[in-house]
Each structure stands twice: as structure tokens, then as C-alpha cells.
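Write out this protein's structure.
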Amino acid sequence: MNAPLHGKVAVVAGATRGAGRGIAVALGEAGGTVVCTGRSSRVHGNASSDYDRRETVEETAEIVTAVGGTGVAIQVDHLDADQVSGLADRLRRDFGHIAVLVNDIWGAEILKGTPAQWNTPVWEHDLDAGLRILRLGLDTHLITSHHLLPLLVAEPGGLLVEVTDGTAHYNAGHYRISVFYDLVKNAVNRLAFSQGHELAAHDGTAVAVTPGWLRSEMMLDNYGVTESTWRDALDADRPGHLPTAPPGFASSESPLYIGRGIAALAADPLRARWNQRSVTSAELARAYRFTDTDGTRPDAWADS
């Protein structure tokens, strides 16, 4: 009863850090075998990554195993169709099929710029950076789905999760940072809708899920705090020269929060009711009655 995903294989594409790591760990909490993919590897380096950071897919897989799942780390650049095809071949050989695919690939956090750079019109925006955002945030999802969905539909009942920023409803009425960012995050929501249409014939489910204000490793570093001290970022009088988080940061969430929502979806025999929908981690928390690590149910989208 405490391991509803025991015997199930999930792939979290983009599991190195942030929401992807939280999702992988939560699937591990539920007893799943979680294949953690991404570009940053302790063994093979991170030369293809857009970030020069310490997190690796091996570290994520180790955390998955430590919480009760089985973590498998595989370095993959999801922009490289040959590498993703090779991943599919390995999964087919090792597992036969997969029950869950999470497309959380991003990698454009630096390219989207700081708030001071947001709202730059398309004719002034760096074109190469903008097109790179499209490739990292959209092409990767398409390449991954193309090669891995055959493994998902090999048995009925598979779950595909597209991780984005903002629900379809919210994004339809709000400009999001830049033309390029706006296009990617709207498109990923639509991917869940269109792929859900195709998966339905195989008793499959596709859902777009957005976290709220995510306390990713990069966000915590930005404010000079850790997951255990994150509320210190709200203190305007703290010493040092680090930026103070705005009041909205009080309703931020850990990466495990969205992860627990996706794990609940994966364990729900009636998950098809969510097919083609675009939801927040907070909506899933209310529906499945789970909380974040501190026992709360934050909802950064509540007033939007």
C-alpha cells in the first residue's frame, strides 16, 4: 500500500535538478523504478549542458533509491535524436515498456534572462537566444515523445506528463516574459492536449502540469538560502548583499510538491479523467490530499 508504483517503470526526461528531480524522487517514494535522464553527469561530464552546475543525473538516481525506489541514471541530450533513439533501445531491452513518461526538459533558464530583461520585444530580442529557447523547451519534448511513446503505448494505461509554466487558461490571457518563452510554455500545454488525443486510443493519459513558484536549486542559490532556510529570503533586513525575495515567495513550493502530484496521478487507476487537461501542482494536491514537505499546500496561482 505504501509503494503503489512498485514494478512500474517511469522515465523522467530532465531529471537533473529542479522540478525534474522532485518528480523523480516522488516517483521513487511511491516505489517506482525511475530512469533519470539529463545532460549533466558525474561520470561523463556536462559539456552539452547550458548550465555549469553541480547537480547530476547520478545524484538524482541515488536520491530516488534512498527514498525507496530504484534510480537509474542515463546521460542523454534530448536535443540529439540519435541519443534519444538509443535511450529507447536501451529501455526496450532492459524493461520492455514504460508506464510513465515525464517531459520536463528545459535548460533555458539563463537564456530567458533576469526580470530586468523581460518584456524585450521580439525585434530587440537576441534571435539566436530566442531560437535556442524554442529548441530546448519544445524540440526536446517532441523528440522524446516521438521515440519513447511507443514504449508507453506497448501496454494500456500509460501516463505522459508535460511539465510547463502556467496553465493553458492562465497563459491564454497573459504575456509570459518574451515572445519566445511565451510560445514555448503555451506550446507545451497544447502538446499535452494533442498527445492526449492520440494516447486515448491506447487507454493512455496526457496531462500538462505546472508548478507554482518553484524553489529549485538555482532559485535557492539566487537568494543565498537552502531548502531548510528558504524563508530567510523574505527578510529584508538580513545581512549581506543578496537579493530579498518578494512577498509572493512565501507561497513558493519545493520540487517535491509537483512530484507528489505526478506520483499520485501515476498511481490513480482513474487517471484518464485528467486526460488533455492543464493543471497546477496545487490542484493535484487538493484532489489527492497530499502536502508539500512542510505540511502545507501552497498555491502560487490562487489569485491569478
